[in-house]
Structure formats: C-alpha cells, structure tokens
Prior knowledge:
Blueprint (H helix, E strand, L loop, with lengths): L1 E4 L8 E4 L9 E11 L1 H7 L16 E7 L9 E4 L2 E3 L19 E2 L11 E5 L4 E2 L6 H4 L5 H11 L5 E5 L3 H12 L3 E6 L4 H9 L4 E4 L8 E6 L6 H8 E9 L20 E4 L5 H10 L9 E5 L3 H9 L6 E5 L1
Parallel strand pairs: 10-11, 10-13, 11-12, 13-14, 14-15, 16-17
Antiparallel strand pairs: 1-2, 3-4, 3-8, 3-17, 4-5, 5-9, 6-7
Helix pairs in contact: 3-4, 3-7
The structure holds zinc ion (2 copies).
Amino acid sequence: MRAAVLEKAGTLLRLADLPDPEPARGKMLLRVRVCGVCRTDLHIVDGELARPKLPLVPGHQIVGEVLGGGSRFEPGARVGVPWLGWTCGECRYCVSGRENLCDQARFTGYDLDGGYAELVAADERFCFTVPEAYSDEQAAPLLCAGLIGYRSLRLAGDAESIGLYGFGASAHIICQVATAERRRVFAGTRAGDDETQEFARSLGAVWAGDALAGPPEELDAVIVFAPAGELVPAALRHVRKGGSVVCAGIHMSDIPTFPYELLWGERVIRSVANLTRADGDEFLALAPTIPIRTEVETFPLEEANEALDRLRRGALRGAAVLVV
Length: 324
Ligand SMILES: [Zn+2]
Ligand SMILES: [Zn+2]
C-alpha cells in the first residue's frame, strides 16, 4: 500500500510502499477514503510528543470502508477511526467510564499505524458509524477536532459566555455546538488575524479578536485550543470567579508563572485528554441535528507535508483533510 511515513521526528513524511496491514483477531481491514489532519499529527511529526512508534503512519481522523475482519460492521460499511485505538478494559479508568485515561491506551497514528495510507487495520470496538448526512471529507474533522472539542465543551460546564482561544479545526466545530446551545462565543485568535476573526463571526461568535488581550467582558469559561502556554494566564484573567479554563490540546508550550491572584476566586484550570467511545457516540449523533457544517481544505495524500505545513503556519481555514 501507498503511505506517508514518519521515519524520524523532525523530518518530512516520506511517501513509501509498505506491506499491506495484516489485521489481528477482532481487527478490521479498512480502505482509507480520507484522513483528517490534526494538530496532534503536527506535534508528533515535529517531535513534541515523547514516544511515537517509528516508523509511523500518522493520522487519526479516518473515514474508511470495511474490507473485512471483525463482526460488528458489514463489509462495505463506512466507519470512522478515531485517536483512541485500544484500551485495556480492566483498569480503574476503563471500568469507570474514563477509558480516555487508561495507562495502557494505544492511539491511532501514534502507537498504531494510522490513516495517511491506502489501508489501515483498526479494532472494531473503537470505530464509529459515520453519520450519513456527511460526505467523507466533511465527516473527517468530526472524528477528533469535533470529538475532543466536544469533550472540552462538556468539561467547561454550563458556561453561558465561553471563549474559544485558537480558532482552528476544533473551535470552528465547537462554536456551532455552543451557539446552538444558546451560549455566547468569544473567539480569540492571533492579533490581527482578520480573516480568522471574520470566519468566527460568520459561525456565530459574538466577538472575535486578539486572544491575549481578551474580550470586552468577563467570561464564564475559556477553552484553549492553541498550543501556546501564555494563553493560560491570559484566559484566567478573562474568566470570572468560579470560571474554568480548559486546555484542549495534547501539547502546549510552557505556561509562564503567574500571580496566585489569577487563580483565586475558585477559578479552575484543567486539561482534556483524548476521548471515550461514549463521547464519540454522543457527539456523532448530535452533529447532524444541529447541523454542524465543517469547513475543509482537501489535499491529496502526496501533499501531506504541505497540509501539515499550512497547519503549522496557521494558514488554513477550518480543517485539512487528505484524500487518499
Ligand atoms: Zn485501562
Ligand atoms: Zn486529533
């Protein structure tokens, strides 16, 4: 099969012909139709996450067609493969509905080869049915950007006014969910990024501007999607007493020290790690009812490096998707 392969962190992906995967028991073989490009892929390629398997086929927002294996889906079925690829099922986290925290969890496109390839093997227990209302391209960003964003929104509680700092693939989806739930969205971007601010307003944000400077009123919560540690004390400054700052990314630059006064008043900082299957089922059922529309830019598999570079430079509107 053709695949884009990471051989060493900090280098470009290389297009290669690899042997077809041979799925173990309980695993399905899928033909990859599209695979979304996530910021996590960029962190892996850039060497910011500690322990990817190498060589690695990245990619964990896969929409594929079942070729065979497993018993949960018929051959020909369209399924989504997310970041959470396997968990132990037995630890304190797995048995309490927090499989996202399993110490032994394996992740697609990190511990397991992912979807920047023509074929992928996936454990059927962790795959989702893709809602029919979506094309392959438009469904892909729901599988991580949407899903982990959704978990972040839930962990932000019942905030009526909510900041989304870093308005990329995830925020553009979550903005639509929050707006449908009658919350007011305040979109924080890099200073002077007029295009992204305009995009956020077009999706229902009541304010869009420089995230570091913050909006003109106190917020109930902020979700920080951008991997920039300096946004955490900024967001604490922008939330009211009792408010939450939720860090949605898997990696962030160091958070600068800040006076305790910013946390005082029962403000909360928390992170969001991965997803559970329950998150996926809930979110994918909700998406077509809103309906969430995803803005995607497609690239052929051969241009995976270009797609990652555009993401690195913040030069994407919405989400990048590789068409295989
Ligand atoms: Zn476990
Ligand atoms: Zn992701």
